[in-house]
Specification:
The protein is an alpha/beta fold. It is built from 8 helices and 17 strands. Strands 1, 2, 3, 4, 5, 6, 13, 14 and 17 form a 9-stranded mixed β-sheet that branches. Strands 9-10-11-12-15-16 form a 6-stranded mixed β-sheet, covered by helices on one side. The chain has a two-stranded antiparallel ribbon with strand order 7-8. Helix 2 runs parallel beside helix 4. It is globular, with a radius of gyration of 19 Å. The model has no long low-confidence stretch (mean pLDDT about 95).
């Protein structure tokens, strides 16, 4: 199906690819291209790659040393050329990039002509200490973004987010109100948090906004020692999982009937029914008498 055909009949074939990224950007580029070509072969006109498509390395210093600027990043150049070659939209879930004295975790939406249509810098930094001793401090590596991004595609409005953003529902409501029919969550979710929360969070964001949700992922045991959850997923506006991967590299393809967005929002008009309200005062707990 071409983009024009999708626009005409209200359906679109989309794909989320699942990778197992390494510390080698060239190797990751090879794998991304292989999976994107397979997705296009299956008819996808929009293909999404995972968070940190170019580099997966939990050694912050080594990762920063390997990063390129946006202008020099070979993965961005390669996938932009691939979008033009295939005539499809490629959503690069994110790239780890240098920017001045800082680094950014930045997603790119590339059009069928190979041009960058939109950029999004991850807003919420994954700074957590998990129960098993696993600890992450993204703010030590990346400068957080400050702006939500929604972009009009020929077939739908698209809201761009990245991974940990999925735990902040106000962002997704803002994107839906701005006109997003499809929400995106390219991710590198940890195995521990993914097993507990991935399906609940992705389905909830789709349900509460009446939107489709597409999430490409990293999955499995990585070269840098981390374990990511995988389960690339496509969810419909009623919360039904349309397609899902496991942990191995794969292509997850689904046909989206975009008329279901308006239908879901009519059935449960949560976006229209929302009201402003006065926030509660901070609760001050009295100390117990001793």
């Amino acid at each position: 199906m071409t983009t024009a055909e999708a626009e005409a009949d209200g359906t679109v074939c989309v794909a989320a690819i699942q990778m197992r990224g390494t510390t080698d950007a060239a190797q990751n580029g090879d794998e991304a291209e292989r999976l994107i070509r397979e997705a296009a072969r299956q008819g996808a006109v929009y293909v999404q790659t995972p968070e940190i498509t170019n580099l997966v390395d939990r050694d912050g210093a080594r990762m920063r040393a390997a990063m390129q600027t946006e202008a020099d990043d070979p993965t961005l150049a390669r996938l932009s050329a691939l979008a033009r070659d295939l005539g499809i939209h490629i959503h690069i879930g994110s790239l780890a990039l240098k920017e001045g004295d800082a680094a950014v975790n930045r997603g790119f939406l590339v059009g069928p002509d190979g041009s960058v249509l939109a950029r999004y810098d991850k807003i919420h930094m994954f700074d957590v200490d998990l129960p098993d001793g696993e600890s992450w401090r993204e703010s030590r590596t990346y400068r957080p973004g400050e702006k939500a991004v929604a972009v009009a595609l020929p077939f739908a409005g698209l809201g761009m987010t990245i991974c940990y953003d999925v735990r902040f529902p106000v962002l997704y409501r803002a994107l839906a109100v701005a006109g997003a029919d499809i929400l995106t969550v390219p991710a590198c979710f940890t195995k521990q948090t993914g097993e507990a929360h991935w399906h609940v969070l992705t389905r909830a964001r789709a349900i509460e906004t009446g939107s489709f949700l597409i999430a490409a992922t990293q999955g499995g045991h990585h070269e840098d020692g981390r374990d990511s959850y995988g389960h690339a997923i496509v969810v419909d506006p009623w919360g039904k999982v349309l397609a899902e991967g496991d942990t191995d590299p794969c292509v997850v393809v689904a046909d989206l009937d975009l008329t279901r967005v308006a239908a879901a929002r009519r059935r449960i008009p949560a976006l229209a029914n929302a009201r402003t309200f006065e926030k509660p005062e901070t609760i001050v707990r009295a100390e117990a008498n001793t």
